[in-house]
Design a protein that fits this description.
Layout: H1 13-35, H2 39-66, H3 72-94, H4 101-119, H5 124-129
Helix pairs in contact: 1-2, 1-4, 2-3, 3-4
The chain binds fe (ii) ion.
Length: about 130
């Protein structure tokens, strides 16, 4: 489980709120997976993580384009890698490969925490300079 901590904050309320929701969805998926072996359930959870990710990445990327953020390309690629991986996992689970559920959720969790703490921090100055708070 991931617990929200100030070290995850980028200091921009809309983005922090979305990151908190993202963490909640992943935590729910981890909790459900621990108490439930149903591959259908896991499939649904992975699907909602993927949908949430696409939505949230679009929030960040829209600001990046609007503010001419210089590291947009690189950042977008990291988002793209995550989405690709999440979709790939959805497909694996759909094809009955659910014994890797723990591993999958651990990967998604680690990715998110690392991304928030490293890559997302780099846009803080740019976003704040452009009036976000
Ligand atoms: Fe990001």
């Amino acid at each position: 489980m991931i617990e929200w901590d100030d070290k995850y904050s980028v200091g921009i309320s809309k983005i922090d709120d979305e990151h908190k929701q993202f963490i909640n969805i992943i935590n729910n998926a981890i909790a459900t997976n621990e108490h439930n072996d149903d591959p259908e359930e896991l499939k649904k959870l992975l699907h909602s993580i993927t949908m949430y990710a696409i939505n949230h990445f679009s929030t960040e990327e829209t600001y990046m384009i609007e503010f001419n953020y210089p590291e947009y390309q690189y950042h977008k690629e990291e988002h793209h890698d995550f989405t690709k991986k999440a979709i790939e996992y959805c497909e694996r689970v759909t094809h009955g490969d659910s014994q890797f559920a723990d591993e999958i959720l651990e990967y998604l969790k680690q990715w998110l925490v690392n991304h928030i703490q490293v890559t997302d921090r780099k846009y803080i100055d740019c976003f704040k300079r452009n009036g976000l708070k």
